[in-house]
Amino acid sequence: MLPLRREAELLIQEMDKETFVYDQRHQKAPCLNPAAALVWRNCDGRTSVAELARLLHEPLGVPTNKELVWHALYGWRGRGYSRNRCFCPDRILGCL
């Protein structure tokens, strides 16, 4: 299943290098770092985890690393920021 972000009841504000996601449902506002924000913007239900990892490389200069993407997706899992359930591989869960 391809990652798909939730958009309902979320207000997104980009400031400098950070992105704030205000969750009206839970009244919380996490701040996403540039890598997490790039993953967030591209969780469109059409982009794979491998493609998300490649998207991080050029603008941020980070290695093409699927584990970094899984880390962001796993962090959002319990907060309801995803419209679908992406299952993180067991070998990755042990690292989080």
Could you explain the architecture of this structure?
The protein is of the alpha+beta class and 96 residues long. 38% of the residues lie in helices and 15% in strands. The protein is built from 4 helices and 3 strands, in the order E-E-E-H-H-H-H. Strands 1-2-3 form a 3-stranded antiparallel beta sheet. It starts with 9 loop residues before the first strand and ends with a helix. The model has no long low-confidence stretch (mean pLDDT 82).
At a glance:
The protein is 38% helix and 15% strand.
Strand-helix topology:
Elements: E1 10-15, E2 18-23, E3 31-32, H1 34-41, H2 49-60, H3 66-77, H4 90-93
Antiparallel strand pairs: 1-2, 2-3
Helix pairs in contact: 1-2, 1-3, 2-3
Q: How many beta-strand segments?
A: 3
Number of helices: 4
Return the string of H and E elements: EEEHHHH
Query: Any low-confidence stretches, pLDDT <50, length ≥5?
Result: none
What proportion strand?
5-15%
Structural class: alpha+beta
Q: Gap between N and C termini, in Å?
A: 21 Å
How is the biggest beta sheet arranged? 3 strands, antiparallel
How is the largest sheet built, in terms of strand order? Answer: 1-2-3
Name the average pLDDT: 82
Principal-axis shape equals globular
The percent of residues in helical segments reads 25-40%
Please give the radius of gyration in angstroms: 13 Å
